[in-house]
User: Which sequence fits this backbone?
């Protein structure tokens, strides 16, 4: 009996994934290809045929699948495969036993084989298979006797050949990098961490260099890059190098950061530097590398690329100064640059407040609100609201009002109303309503206006705005709030809109949407008969559309 627990499996996936995986298993969609006591390989038929490999160790249930699933937990294909192992153990165990017998037979053959013949056989096989030759060298070679970085890069580049179409990798075609990552793991197991690091360096560089030739819409290559760079950094950290020997690797990561090709990987290099520079000597060397690149002035936001790069360099230096305990130098640097960036301004204010300089923190944040455009000041205003709450109630209320008008975020509405006396609240409410009324041509403005009316129990005004929109989706959105108060007005607008909406398009998806609106109309008490009349009319007018007639059966 295979010792796996379905309750444990349920904990490793969503309820939906488990239910769908169970259905796939029961429908016979799982085809076991290989089974050993360590792992099972299967093909699971779904939208396409997906390759699944699950591990059967004592640790947490795990598996890999080449489907595009990117949500929490195990996908339904992995679940289906585990269920095939758990519930069909009578079929799986013979396969496992067969694999064990074959392994035992192979072991006996090895014991009986003539050493010279075995050597000749291995040489012949390795001559034809470079991957076997490389793995043999990783296991039996001496430390530091691996291949060059360029050799590894050439192998990584060759992996793209299998999926490239005219020099481009289309969406859904994923390069399989496991031949190199598995090789790196062999070197890790042998303790040759620098050779493993070289392999991961090659992988990360090739992935970065190839990004312009890849459709990475699902982020697979970005994840592969991050994993390779993380593994590279882990190898260097584990290698037991002293601070001087770590310097070339720190410089390598910093140079790659500066290269910024592609720029969306810069955060990965920055995080790798932070992880590798765990000692003060490392950080001081990193600081020495950074200093020549510090900007004299930060370019305007109109030159966004150079502006962003300069801000990132300043932020990197500020992080280093704090980790090195150089508080005076930190304050000198941020004082120089904070007016150039709302993020730096906020950081300056937060640091001042943390160090007990509340008045100065308030001054800096208020200056930022005055300097930067409104759409950039939300976090600064939020910071100020926390300071004003106890020290300046009037400014606190003004700031909450500005934040609500700026962001439309309800987290500011309740505190603003609570902090305002009745007469003052009516005045502020009038300003809020006027603001969103001016912007009612934008749906978000009208929606916010309706929502405020509902919060304040101004139902007549809310109804006027909802009906003026002349939209079925808007009627549906606010039906629970208003239809029971104004059933006749609400139903009449529904009735005016539903017939032309039904006529405007075809296709089952459209018909389903029409039926969903009709079901909502039936929910208005006292108008069930009127809905039946509308349905009868639609059946007559659309009698030549069998899909529509079919969808209306439930009505």
Assistant:
């Amino acid at each position: 009996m295979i010792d796996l627990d379905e309750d444990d499996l349920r904990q490793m996936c969503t309820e939906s994934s488990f239910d769908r995986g169970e259905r796939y298993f029961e429908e016979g969609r799982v085809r076991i290809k290989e089974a050993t006591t360590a792992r099972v390989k299967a093909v699971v038929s779904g939208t396409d045929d997906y390759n699944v490999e699950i591990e059967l160790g004592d640790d947490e249930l795990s598996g890999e699948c080449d489907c595009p699933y990117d949500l929490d937990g195990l996908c339904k294909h992995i679940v289906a495969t585990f269920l095939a192992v758990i519930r069909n153990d009578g079929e799986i165990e013979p396969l496992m036993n067969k694999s064990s017998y074959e392994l035992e037979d192979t072991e006996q053959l090895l014991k009986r084989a003539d050493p010279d013949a075995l050597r000749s056989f291995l040489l012949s096989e390795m001559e034809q298979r470079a991957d076997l030759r490389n793995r043999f060298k990783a296991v039996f070679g001496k430390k530091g006797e691996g291949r060059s970085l360029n050799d590894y890069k050439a192998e990584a580049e060759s992996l793209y050949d299998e999926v490239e179409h005219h020099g481009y990798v289309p969406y859904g075609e994923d390069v399989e990098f496991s031949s190199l990552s598995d090789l790196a793991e062999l070197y890790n197991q042998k303790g040759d961490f620098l050779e493993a690091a070289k392999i991961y360096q090659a992988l990360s560089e090739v992935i970065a260099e190839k990004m312009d030739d890849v459709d990475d819409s699902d982020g697979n290559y970005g994840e592969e890059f991050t994993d390779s760079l993380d593994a590279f950094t882990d190898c260097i950290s584990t290698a037991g190098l002293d601070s001087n020997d770590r310097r070339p690797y720190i410089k390598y990561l910093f140079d790659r950061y500066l290269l910024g090709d592609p720029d969306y990987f810069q955060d990965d290099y920055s995080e790798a530097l932070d992880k590798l520079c765990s000692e003060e000597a490392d950080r001081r060397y990193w600081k020495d590398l950074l200093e020549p690149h510090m900007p004299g002035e930060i370019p305007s936001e109109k030159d966004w690329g150079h502006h962003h790069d300069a801000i990132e360099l300043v932020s990197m230096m500020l992080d280093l100064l704090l980790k090195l305990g150089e508080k005076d130098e930190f304050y000198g640097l941020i004082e120089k640059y904070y007016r150039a960036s709302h993020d730096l301004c906020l950081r300056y204010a937060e640091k001042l407040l943390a160090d007990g300089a509340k008045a100065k923190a308030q001054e800096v944040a208020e200056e930022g609100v005055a300097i930067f455009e409104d759409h950039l000041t939300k976090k600064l205003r939020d910071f100020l609201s926390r300071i004003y709450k106890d020290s300046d109630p009037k400014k606190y209320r003004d700031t909450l009002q500005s934040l609500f008008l700026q962001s439309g975020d309800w987290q500011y509405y309740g505190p603003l109303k609570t902090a305002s006396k009745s007469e003052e609240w009516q005045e502020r409410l009038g300003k809020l309503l006027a603001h969103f009324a001016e912007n009612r041509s934008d749906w978000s403005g009208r929606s916010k206006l309706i929502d405020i009316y509902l919060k304040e129990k101004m139902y007549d005004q809310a109804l006027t705005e909802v009906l003026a929109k002349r939209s079925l989706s808007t009627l549906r959105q606010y039906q629970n709030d208003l239809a029971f108060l104004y059933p006749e007005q609400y139903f009449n607008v529904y009735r005016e809109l539903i017939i032309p909406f039904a006529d405007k398009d075809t296709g089952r998806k459209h018909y389903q949407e029409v039926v969903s609106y009709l079901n909502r109309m039936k929910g208005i008490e006292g108008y069930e008969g009127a809905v039946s009349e509308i349905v009868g009319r639609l059946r007559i007018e659309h009698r030549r559309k069998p899909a529509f007639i079919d969808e209306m059966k439930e009505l």
